[in-house]
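ok so for the tutorial part 2 we go from a plain amino acid sequence to predicted structure tokens. step 1 is just haveing the sequence, like this:
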Amino acid sequence: MKISLVIPMYNEEENVAKTLEEVTNVLKKFDDFEIIVVDDGSTDNTYQLTYELISSDSRIKLLKHPVNMGMGRALRTGFEKAEGDVIITIDADLSYDPSFIPKLIDELDEPTDIVIGSQYMEGGKTENIPALRLFISKSANKIVGYAMADSISTVTGVLRAYRKEVLDSVELESNGTEINPEIISKARAVGFNIKEIPVTLKGRELGESKVRFRSTTISHLLFTFFEKPMILFGTIGLIICLIGVISAIYLFYEYLIGTLDPTRPLMLFMVLMILSGIQILIFGFVATQISLLKREIYVVQKENKLLRKKLK
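step 2 — the prediction. this is what the tokens look like for a chain of 312 residues:
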């Protein structure tokens, strides 16, 4: 069994040497492995330092994007070049300790196809994480996890092990951090089995975080609405309907006490609110059906990719 470790890097010159040393020491336990470093358009010395460090080690490959394209695109580039039977992903800043890698691989047995390192499941821990970042991370995982209607507690984390078949079977499109829930969503839709193990997430020790909370939050919310449209349409539709119903109750009260004026604008407002709310709920229902159809398309894509692979 060959193992491929994919590490996306962007402006990580402070971490390059330590990261490569630690992951290499862990992977030495295995007979056959490769490390794929994807420099995502760094503007510091990340690429040059990596190039110098790996020049004498053929097991480490260095790929480069001309400009910063995002974590998702960097991971996809690594996946395309990975030759291993098992593909591992990890952060460049070692927020997750590489010592968890063997545990991920050990759990990747039948019938498990994906193993996720989870800091939010029972037994998982976080250390030295800024309070705001921790709150946003937990909230994002709760919201996106709910949209997937699954028991996965950490859907945005990057510490994972995949069977190569999984990544060969799904069409990935995301360029940003939303690639992590995208993989889970599509893999689950085509029938792959997913498992979590408890790990520890630590705060960054060197360099600056590349996570932009605003853009990350927006991308995860958009992914959630795309995955489960009724969260958006249902919430808005019910609120608007409720406003209409409350207006109707008030108008009925005025009718009972004899002060109702049929020409009041509130009459038209009530009708518009109720009709608009119902229409938005219908939009949500239609969007949900489209989402279910999308899952069937994933299955067809999987079959087509496997067929093309066999023909090659």
